[in-house]
Amino acid sequence: MKFERKHAVLLLAVATWNVISFGNFAKNLYGAYEAGEERATGYWVAHSVLIVVNMAIAAALGSLGWKALRSARDA
User: Fold this and answer.
1) Which of 11, 25, 55, 58 fits 18 for a cystine, CB–CB 3.0-4.6 Å?
2) pLDDT truncated to tens, each residue of the chain (75 aa)?
3) 29-49 as b/e, with b when 16 or more CB fall inside 10 Å?
C-alpha cells in the first residue's frame, strides 16, 4: 500500500489527539493522586500503564505519519 498525503495527515491527527487526550488524563490522574484520592493500587497502576501504552502508540503513529508525509512530498 502506498501512503498518500491524506493518510499521513490522518496518522498525524490521531497521534496528536492521543497526546492531547492522554496528556490531559495523565495530568488529572496525577492531580487526583496528589490530592490524596483513595484508590486501590491496581487503579493507579492500570491507568498509568494505559497512559504509557497510548503515548507509545501516538509516537509510533506520529513517526509513521511523518515518514508518509515526507514520502508523499518527495513523490
Assistant:
1) 58
2) 788 999 999 999 999 999 999 999 999 999 999 999 999 999 999 999 999 999 999 999 999 999 999 998 887
3) beeeeeeeeeeeeeeeeebee
